Prior knowledge:
globular, mainly alpha, Glycerol uptake facilitator protein, 0% strand
Amino acid sequence: xxxxxxxxxxxxxxxxxxxxxxxxxxxxxxxxxxxxxxxxxxxxxxxxxxxxxxxxxxxxxxxxxxxxxxxxxxxxxxxxxxxxxxxxxxxxxxxxxxxxxxxxxxxxxxxxxxxxxxxxxxxxxxxxxxxxxxxxxxxxxxxxxxxxxxxxxxxxxxxxxxxxxxxxxxxxxxxxxxxxxxxxxxxxxxxxxxxxxxxxxxxxxxxxxxxxxxxxxxxx
Length: 220
């Protein structure tokens, strides 16, 4: 269990370091917001695929409290395991943001001034999270877990570019991104609404995976 928690801690931390660090790097390289988003997207997708592949055999590579909670609901994790996973993910995410800040000579903790508000952004976050959760659990239901290191980054990369919220889709990552006043940051006042939207999306995603799994079973 200790090794699994360390895996979730470091995996989530490295993911956030990639998100925040690439955002800071993008700001250093260009003032074009489109190019900044593209740099941020490519770095996140590559890091996410690599981290899932490496940490899946250790902890399952959740890196996301919503994934862990849904696994508790599916009885694939015990309640106590789920709690420890979530704590490890939040702590790792915050550390990852702090390390990324320090790499670019920023204070370890800086309150983001990037306010992300409005129904359109929240709808985007619901869609991004619903898609992520659906991709994960539908892949598991289909027996295609080995493809998750490809499918999840593919969804996140696409959702970065087609959703209005740029696909946070993760409460731990969302909170951690409030600790950086760089391209990828989010003002702490925007975090609660984003997390609520993510929770709603997660419920929708699991519901869709259950529906399509039952439909698949009927046709077998």
